[in-house]
Amino acid sequence: MRLAIMGAGAVGASVAELASAYGHEVTAIADSNSAAIDPNGLDTEAALATKRASGTVGDDSPESVLEAEYDVLVEATPTTLGDAEPGYSHTVSALERDRHVVLANKGPIAERYDEVRAHERNSEGRVSFDATVGGAIPVLTTIDDIGRSNVTAVRGVLNGTANFILSRMAAESLDYEHVLAEAQDLGVAEADPTFDVDGTDAALKCVILANVLFGGGYALSDAAVEGIREIPGAALQLAAEDGQTIRLIGEVVDEEIRVGPRLVPETGTLAVSGTQNIVQLQTERAGRLNISGRGAGGDETATAVLGDINRLL
Questions:
Q1: Tag placement on the chain: N or C end, fewer CB within 10 Å?
Q2: Distance between CA atoms of 198 and 77, rounded to whole angstroms?
Q3: What gap in Å lies between CA 208 and CA 219, rounded to an integer?
Q4: pLDDT attached to residue 22
């Protein structure tokens, strides 16, 4: 498959680097200010080296990628809320050309799911987005395999930054601000960690799950969301005395979406540590299924993107 990649951050760059190993060819890649395009196959190593050296991948405009020769548009620009732009417009543009779209960007599916599906119905292209929930963890693929009507509830730890902070606070009896600074030094937390620590990222993933399970109709505004900023270290110590700990849990239960700190057994399956994620699927006939792994990272998320591309074949 010929790939055009919108977004040259950690995920987009990893897709470009790994594409040939999966049997695909990159014909275009764009960052926020530039693009590199070659219909005969792009030298991705050179484009990414140019990006590292000069801050741009090439001399073309980002918008020109949408008119390039490709079979699949990989949308890996940063997630935005509300109108989900520019990811939504990129998706629509590709579908209008009857091209496939694989999303790592959560915005279009979390905020404008019904519109994306409407455009998909009028296109020869398809939209896949397994990478939007759980990084390398095959959450949406597993739901498809089980059958969406057979999944009665989903809950889990869906943000590695928040989980790192809470597990470090519990293990070392440290306060939130101290551990946040440590996470930022390690590159686990962004300079502006709002999306992660306020529960927004986990909520977006739960909204996507709700849209998949119930056929659309959900956006971030439908989620009840609480973050971890106000959790004192003493609360984790008290929880430990009762054999429990606190994790930021996202839930899709009874057609409702909730994200917030929850007490969980210290030795239970939801008490994953560090940046690990875990998703529990409650099913009609197979009981509870636990899927865990790294929920973020360039290579990890890129493997989910490339898995979606392979399934399109």
A1: C
A2: 21
A3: 8
A4: 95
Q: Which residue has the higher pLDDT, 2 or 298?
A: 2
> Which tokens in the block code for residue 152?
């009665």
Helix (H) or strand (E) holding 121: helix 113-121
Domains of the chain: 2-135+299-312 (3.40.50.720), 139-295 (3.30.360.10)
Name 234's Cβ contacts closer than 8 Å, sequence gap at least 6: none
Q: What is the pLDDT of residues 183-195, one digit of tens each?
A: 999 888 889 999 9
Of 90, 99, 205, 247, catalytic = 205
**Beta-strand pair 256-265/244-253:** antiparallel
- 51 a catalytic residue: no
How many Cβ atoms from other residues are within 10 Å of residue 60's Cβ? 17
Alpha-carbon distance of 281 to 252, in angstroms, equals 10
Task: Give the three-state DSSP class for 270.
Answer: coil
Rounded CA gap, 36 and 138, in Å? 31
**DSSP β-ladder status, 25-30 and 35-37:** antiparallel
Q: What is the pLDDT of residues 26-60, one digit of tens each?
A: 999 999 999 999 999 999 999 999 999 999 999 99
User: Once rounded to an integer, what is the mean pLDDT over residues 155-182?
Assistant: 94
Contacts of 87 (CB under 8 A, 6+ apart): 6, 75, 77, 79, 80, 103, 105, 107, 108
Q: How many residues comprise the chain?
A: 313
Is 142:291 a contact under the CB 8 Å cutoff? yes
Peptide bond into 86 cis (omega under 30): yes
Query: Could you read off the pLDDT of 234-292 as tens digits, one per residue?
Result: 999 999 999 999 999 999 999 999 999 999 999 999 999 999 999 999 999 899 999 99
Rounded distance between C-alpha atoms, residue 201 and residue 162, angstroms: 10
